[in-house]
Amino acid sequence: MTAKLSTTVNQINTLVANEESRQLILRFFEFMKNIGTSERYQNNNLKAIIAYSKFLGPLISLDQVKCRIQITSFLDSKIKGVEQDPDKRWITTWNDYLGRIKYFFRWMYNYDDKRFEYN
């Protein structure tokens, strides 16, 4: 059973240990709401970014990520062995997380505060 959007949003405050990352994720959520994305899309993006933030830990915030290896090491943690996944379905998961993380970082580096009013 999948978590509702409201549950995922509530988890941001409890699961993200880094305050800067928490604020970035909340702003990202507001951005997605304001542009009219579906709740399912918002929920899936938030879950992926929360998982990535947890992977980084409390000492590294999302805005401190500068190296490709910081992202690929998280993505590579989704790889399963042939015994667990003989059809290599992990590739779909790997690509899904990659797409959601790319969307987040593109938003983070390219959005303009003057164009997007959040309140």
Describe this structure in words.
This protein has five helices and no strands. By secondary structure, the protein is mainly α. Helix 1 (5-15) runs parallel beside helix 3, helix 2 (19-34) runs antiparallel to helix 3 and helix 3 (39-56) packs across helix 5. The chain is globular. It starts with a helix and ends in a 9-residue tail after the last helix. The mean pLDDT is 91.
Give the gist of this structure.
The protein is mostly helical. Helices cover 63% and strands 0% of the residues. It is globular and about 40 Å long.
How is this fold's topology laid out?
Blueprint (H helix, E strand, L loop, with lengths): L4 H11 L3 H16 L4 H18 L11 H9 L13 H21 L9
Helix pairs in contact: 1-3, 2-3, 3-5
Task: Kindly give the count of domains.
Answer: 1
Beta-strand residue fraction:
under 5%
Computed Rg: 15 Å
Structural class: mainly alpha
Number of helices: 5
In percent, how helical is the residue content? Answer: 55-70%
- Order of secondary-structure elements: HHHHH
Global outline: globular
Mean pLDDT over all positions: 91
Largest sheet: none
Distance N terminus to C terminus?
33 Å
| pLDDT < 50 runs, ≥5 residues | none
